[in-house]
Structures are given as structure tokens and as C-alpha cells.
Amino acid sequence: MSFVIEITQTGGPDVLRESELAVPTPGANEVLIRNHAAAVNFIDTIIRRDEMPEGMMPDLPHVPGVEGAGVIEALGDGVQGLAVGDRVAWMGPIGAGGYGTHSVIGAPYVTRLADTVGFDTGASVPVNAMTAYHMLVNLGGAAAGKSVLVHAAAGGVGTMILHIAKHLGMTVIASASTDKVGYAKDQGADHVIDYRTEDVTARVMELTDGRGVDLTLNPISGESLKSDLDALAPLGTAVLFGFLAGPPAGSFAEDLIKHFQKSVAVRASDIYTYFVNRPEEFSADMATVFDLLQEGVLRPNITTLPIAEAAEAHRRLEAGETTGKLVLSFD
Question: What is the CA radius of gyration of the chain?
Fold first, then answer.
């Protein structure tokens, strides 16, 4: 049997319950993984609260967890490049069941984990690092000499953006709250703006001698898209990847068109669009990301709790008490 933490009814963190399910069987091009660790993501809490967009809420009971790390126990037909006994990390869709001892995952979304990397660390990487890498490289044209403004820079994705952007030779301007300014500096940001006490756009223009930045990566949305457009350099790109402050405010006619002569772009990024539509490219990028982890470029800041304390992990995440990533360990 597989031990799981599942959501049987929606509500607060205390609705998470321990249970047992039959161990699943991998199908064609799938692998069965015995999880040693799973990471906690906001999507887990959104499902638990029944706040998913219409039509996207999974059926209950539901086992949360969309990324983890462990050991391959079985292979489905057609799987190549992986073997039983391999230490691996994985990313999966809603329903992947990371809060359980066993998950069946499509082979393109599984990558080998170096012996020198712990399962806790491996589990913390896929969603955040792939989100960061995809936005920087595939959508944002990241390159040495370019500049990027990173919102929520002390979060899990923000931390990975800082590491990867600096590795690529970019000038990194981080936006963070007062209590997290030091953290962002420690993660490699060239400049940190305290958005609680400073005007972000004004500081960006000051730091770039009036030019603006080539790229903004923004999980905030709300009114912040307008200021991002003001902060963009000519031919710059704003990428929205979250809605912490609600849907983006503004309109094409009033806000985007005033930057017409800068030829700016606004993109939305959901990592699962890449996951679903480009599995081979996704797989290659995931291997690259884990090479960066092994090389020490990525330095995940993780807090590990035992799987039995999943409710406490949700409470901390929702209370904003964490920096970096929360991981649940089965060991």
C-alpha cells in the first residue's frame, strides 16, 4: 500500500488526512517512483481551499503534490534512459500525488538525481527552477549584458531566478519586502529595491541611467503590470506568471499603447503550457537545470518537515512565514 496525505474535504490546513491507497502501476512511457521527499506549492493550498479556477478543481479525495524526488521502482513499456533503482527528481501535473509514498510520472518529466544531491534538495527544484529557467531563457531572451527586474525575489521562484540570471551574466534588480532585502542580496542580486518604502519604477530608472530593464518577471500582477511597462527598456518584455495581487489591471488602449514607441511585449507564462506542449524540450531543459544544481549554481533554500506535518507546512506557506521552499520528507 501507498501512504498518502489527502484532501477529503476543502477547508483549512486541518482537512489534510493520512490514508492508504493501492500502489499505482506505470503505463506506457511512465515510471513508478518511491518518493522520499515532496515539495509544497501554492497550488496545493489553492486546491485545499477550493479556490481553483472554474473547471480546474480535481475530484476529492485528492492527494496533493506536483514535484518530488525518490527512487524508480518500476518502468512502463517504452521507457528509455531510466532504470529501476535510479535516484530521480520529477515534476508532474495536478494529481501526481507527491504527498504519497508512490507516484506514477511520465518519463519526460523525470530526471536523474546525482548521488551528491539529497532527496529533499532534489524535490525542491523542478517547479521553481523550471519556471525560472523557462521564463528567462525561452521567453525572456536572457543573455549576458541584459538586465532583469525580479518581483517577489525572496520566494522560491524568485530565488531560482536570481541564481540563473546571475549565472547567465545578467544585471539583476530584485524587488522584495523590507525584511527580505538582505536575503535577496545574499542570493546574488546586484541591486535590491524595498517595494514597501521605495518607488520601484523610479529606482529601476535610476539604476539603469534612465534606460529601463530588458525583462521583468512578475508573479504579482494587479497594478504592478503598469509600473513594469514604465520600467521596461525599448524592446523589453514583461512576463506575468502569477496573480498574488489579483488579475493585471489596465488596458491595451490606455496603458500598453502609451509604450508603443518602445515596442514592448507582455507575455503570460504558465509552466504547464510548456510541460504539456513541448515534452522533449521540457525534458532537456530539466536536465540542464539539474546540471546547474549539481554544479552549485542553484542553491535552494529549503525547510524540511516530516510528511505528517503537511498541515503545518500549508499554514506556514499561507502565512508568508517562509523564504525559499518547503519540503515534506518521507524519511
Answer: 20
Please give the model's pTM, rounded to 2 decimal places: 0.94
Q: What are the angstrom distances between the C-alpha of 259 and each of 38, 163, 207, 209?
A: 43, 30, 20, 18
Identify the structural domains of the chain with CATH numbers, from first to last.
2-125+300-329 (3.90.180.10), 128-270 (3.40.50.720)
Non-local (6+) Cβ contacts of 329 within 8 A are 36, 37, 119, 120, 304, 305, 306, 307
Which residues of the chain form beta strands (DSSP E)? 2-7, 16-21, 30-39, 67-75, 87-91, 102-106, 110-112, 147-150, 171-176, 191-194, 213-218, 232-240, 265-268, 302-306, 325-329
> Strand 16-21 vs strand 213-218: parallel, antiparallel, or unpaired?
unpaired
Which triple of cell numbers denotes residue 192?
535590491
Q: What is the pLDDT of residue 255?
A: 78
Whole-number Å distance between alpha carbons of 217 and 134: 11
Please report where in the chains the cell 541591486 appears, as a residue: 191
72 has pLDDT over 90: yes
Cell readout for 226 is 503598469
> Rounded to whole angstroms, how far apart are CA atoms 149 and 203?
11
Query: The dihedral of CA 7, 10, 12, 14: what is its sign?
Result: negative
Which of 169, 170, 176, 167 has its CA nearest to residue 147?
A: 170
- Per-residue pLDDT tens over the stretch 237-280: 999 998 777 778 888 788 788 888 999 999 999 999 999 999 99
Q: What is the mean pLDDT of residues 195-216?
A: 97
